[in-house]
Design goal:
Elements lengths: L2 E3 L9 E2 L3 H10 L7 E5 L5 E9 L4 E10 L7 E6 L3 H13 L4 E6 L10 H15 L6 E7 H6 L6 E5 L5 E2 H4 L6 E5 L7 H9 L3 E5 L7 H16 L5
Helix pairs in contact: 2-3, 2-7
């Protein structure tokens, strides 16, 4: 069944007006008609069965009927990734959403080749991935911040898995503690020596290796999240 992310609060009988693009998708792409069912969620109130209650000249009105799933959240995992090429950033956000990340934080390192980032486009990609994968929340995507600023404001209760291309412990043996985690992926040129030294000196950081091959940022992000999921994630639910 079609799933749609909406923003209003959901309760029995409440009317929901999707965006114009969403309405066009429902009626022109998926060919839904008056009275047809779909699933809607907002990241707060669980998943609801809804019907198309009105078809207007510009858009449709949905009516929430009954809750089919209570609200749940995925693993408390953040992905921090250096800004890379547009297409690769988009892939990273899509796969992070599919793999359950709660937040994607873009960062600028000393070797980052910064390109313009369209947060609205990345938000749309995250929403679409959430709709397709069945998750009940949508990961947030943050504006880029310098890596030093992110580390300066770090909450030490969250462990940081630092993927170091110069070497580290295997993820399976290094990542054993549950709880809040973040994964850090560097730029295509790698971290600078100064950044690496600081990261390795931090008490909340665990340096890991992603194997003997040099990976692009998008591949590294997918591999790191998959390995983390296998170690302490939610793949067995």
């Amino acid at each position: 069944m079609i799933r749609l992310h909406v923003t209003p609060d959901l309760s029995p009988g409440v009317g929901v007006a999707p965006t114009l693009d969403q309405s066009r998708y429902l009626t022109q792409v998926m060919r839904l008609k008056l009275g047809d069912d779909l699933l809607i969620f907002n990241g707060r109130d669980g998943e609801w069965r809804a019907t198309i209650a009105e078809v207007l000249k510009k858009g449709v009105v949905l009516r929430a009927e009954d809750q089919v799933r209570s609200q749940t959240l995925g693993p408390d995992l953040e992905l921090i990734v250096a800004v890379v090429k547009k297409s690769r950033v988009e892939t990273i956000v899509e796969k992070a959403a599919e793999l359950g990340a709660a937040r994607v934080r873009l960062t600028v390192t000393q070797r980052t080749n910064v390109e313009h980032v369209r947060l609205d486009r990345l938000d749309a990609i995250a929403i679409e991935a959430a709709e397709q994968t069945g998750r009940l929340d949508v990961p947030t995507v943050d504006d880029p911040l310098k890596l030093a600023a992110i580390l300066d404001g770090w909450d030490a209760s969250r462990r940081l898995m630092f993927c170091d291309e110069t070497g580290g412990a295997p993820v399976g043996s290094a990542i054993t503690q549950p709880g809040p985690w973040a994964i850090l992926i560097g730029p295509e040129g790698g971290f600078s020596p100064e950044e690496r030294d600081r990261l390795r000196a931090l008490p909340f950081t665990t340096a890991v290796s992603l194997g003997p091959r040099i990976l692009r940022a998008d591949t590294a992000a997918i591999a790191a999240m998959s390995l983390w999921q296998a170690a302490v994630g939610d793949w067995e639910r």
